[in-house]
Write a structure and sequence with these properties.
439 residues; mainly alpha; two-stranded antiparallel ribbon; 21 helices; globular
C-alpha cells in the first residue's frame, strides 16, 4: 500500500525544487522514504510512481508525508514541514496516539514521531495538554504484568551492536550533565535529533533478545532524561508522552527500578497540575514498584513519597518517609545502584528532604537537612538554585524577611544563565513571597 490519498492539486513546485537542489532522482527519493518507513515500523511501499504522482500534485497520507519530510529535513539541514509542501500533517494524530499505552511496536512508532517533532521544536504540537487520566491504567499494567516473552528484533536491516548501545548511553550522560548545568530548554532538541537519527533505526533493527534487553533499557534512560528536560521546559504534555513510551519499554524488560523512575516522573508532573491526590498516588506506586530493587532506588522512591506527603499537609508522614529514605541510602553505600541513578548522592537526598520538611512547615528539620546538603560539593547550577530556593523558604518559615530576600536574590543571580522555565516560575513565586509548592 502506498499511503497516498485521492486528493490532487496542481504540480508541487516546492517538492520539485527540493529534489532538484539535492540532485535526487524520483527513484532515489522513493528509496530513501522507504528506508525511513522501515526504520519507524511503517508498512507503506513507496515506489517511483508514487513520488511522481506527488510531484504532479497528489497528496500522500499523513504518515508518508511525515516520512518524506524527515528525509528532506535531514538532507537540506532545515525543517521541511508537510504544510510547506501543501500536504497533510499527522501531528494531531500523534498527540492523541502517544497517550495510548499499547505494545512495544506502538511505543517505538510514537518515540520516532516525538523525537522528530521535538528536534524541530514544534512547540505547538509538543505542548499538547497533560492528561491526568491516562497514567493510572498504564501504571497498573506495568506493575502487574510480566515482562514480554521476546525482546529480540527482526524487523529491519540495521544490525544493532554493543557499540550502538554504548553511543546512546554516552550521549544520555553527556546531555544529562548539560541539562544540570544549563537547563532543559537548551539542548533537548539536539538530543532528540540524535535519538531520531540513531535510536529509531536501532529499535526497528535486528538484535537478539539479550541485546534487546540492554537496548530497551538504554533507550528508556535517554527518553526519561528527555522527559525531565521537557518538564524543566514546562512542557508537561510532552514529558508525559515520553514517560508513557519509556514505561512500556521498561515493562517489556521487567525492569522495576526504571518503572519506579517513571512513577517518580509522574509525581512531579502531577504536582505541576495541582493534583495533590494524584501526587500521592503516584508516589505510593513508586514505593510499591521499588520493592525488590536496589536500596538506592528505594531511597529515591521514599524521599519522593516524603515530598508527596508534604504537599498533602502530613508532616508526621514526611518525617517517617525521610527516615526510610535515609535508611535505604545508608544500605546503598555497600551495594551497587543502577547507572542512571548515579547522580543521586547524599547532597541530592538531603536537598529533597529539606524541601519536604520546608513544605510541611518543619523548619528545624529542614534546616538540618539543608546544612547537610550544602556542605557537599555540586557541579550542577540548577541543583544549586533549587537549594537556594529551599533555603529562602526556610527563612520565610522562621519569619526572617531580610534573610529570605537576600537568599532569593542569590538564587535569581545564580539562575541567570539557566534555560529553565520551571525555575523561572518558581523564582517569581519566591520573590513574591509565596509559599514553596512546585517541585
Amino acid at each position: 500500500m502506498t499511503g497516498s490519498t485521492a486528493k490532487h492539486h496542481g504540480p508541487n513546485e516546492v517538492l520539485r525544487k527540493h529534489l532538484e537542489y539535492l540532485g535526487w532522482s524520483i527513484s532515489g527519493f522513493a528509496r530513501r522514504i522507504g528506508a525511513r518507513c522501515q526504520a519507524v515500523g511503517l508498512t507503506h511501499t513507496v515506489s517511483p510512481s508514487t513520488v511522481s504522482r506527488w510531484c504532479k500534485g497528489a497528496v500522500p497520507s499523513a504518515e508518508l508525508a511525515a516520512a518524506a519530510c524527515h528525509v528532506l529535513s535531514a538532507a537540506l539541514h532545515q525543517h521541511v514541514t508537510p504544510e510547506s509542501l501543501g500536504w497533510l500533517s499527522d501531528n494531531a494524530q500523534v498527540a492523541a496516539q502517544s497517550l495510548e499505552y499499547r505494545d512495544v511496536a506502538h511505543a517505538v512508532r510514537m518515540l520516532a514521531r516525538l523525537w522528530a517533532l521535538d528536534a524541530m521544536r514544534r512547540r505547538d504540537v509538543v505542548k499538547s495538554a497533560f492528561s491526568a487520566s491516562v497514567f493510572g491504567p498504564a501504571s497498573r499494567e506495568a506493575l502487574v504484568m510480566p515482562a514480554d516473552t521476546d525482546t529480540g528484533g527482526r524487523g529491519g536491516p540495521y544490525k544493532v551492536t554493543a557499540a550502538d548501545i554504548d553511543l546512546v548511553d554516552e550521549h544520555t550522560r553527556i546531555y544529562g550533565r548539560l541539562d544540570a548545568q544549563h537547563g532543559g530548554g537548551k539542548y533537548r532538541g539536539v538530543f532528540a535529533s540524535l535519538m531520531d537519527t540513531h535510536a529509531t533505526p536501532m529499535l526497528s533493527g535486528t538484535y537478539s533478545a539479550r541485546t534487546g534487553q540492554r537496548l530497551y533499557g538504554s533507550v528508556v534512560d535517554a527518553v526519561l532524561a528527555m522527559a525531565s528536560m521537557a518538564y524543566d521546559d514546562q512542557l508537561p504534555g510532552l514529558a508525559q508522552r515520553y514517560d508513557l513510551q519509556a514505561m512500556r519499554l521498561a515493562q517489556a524488560i521487567g525492569d522495576r527500578a526504571r518503572i519506579t523512575r517513571v512513577h517518580i516522573h509522574q509525581v512531579r508532573l502531577a504536582a505541576t497540575q495541582g493534583g495533590r491526590v494524584d501526587v500521592l498516588s503516584h508516589a505510593r506506586s513508586a514505593v510499591l514498584a521499588a520493592e525488590g530493587t536496589p536500596p538506592l532506588v528505594r531511597a529515591y522512591a521514599c524521599v519522593t513519597e516524603a515530598r508527596a506527603w508534604a504537599l498533602n499537609g502530613k508532616p508526621d508522614q514526611v518525617t517517617t518517609a525521610v527516615k526510610r529514605a535515609r535508611s535505604f541510602f545508608a544500605r546503598a553505600q555497600s551495594s551497587d545502584g543502577p547507572a542512571w541513578l548515579e547522580w543521586f548522592h547524599l547532597r541530592e537526598l538531603e536537598g529533597q528532604a529539606a524541601w519536604a520538611f520546608a513544605v510541611a512547615g518543619l523548619a528545624e528539620q529542614g534546616a538540618q537537612s539543608l546544612k547537610k546538603a550544602t556542605a557537599l560539593p555540586s557541579d550542577g547550577t540548577r541543583d544549586t538554585v533549587e537549594l537556594l530556593i529551599t533555603e529562602a523558604e526556610l527563612a520565610r518559615l522562621r519569619g526572617d524577611s531580610a534573610e529570605h530576600a537576600a537568599v532569593a536574590k542569590r538564587a535569581s543571580q545564580a539562575s541567570q544563565h539557566l534555560m529553565s522555565r520551571r525555575l523561572s516560575e518558581r523564582l517569581d513565586h519566591l520573590n513574591a513571597g509565596e509559599p514553596l509548592r512546585g517541585f
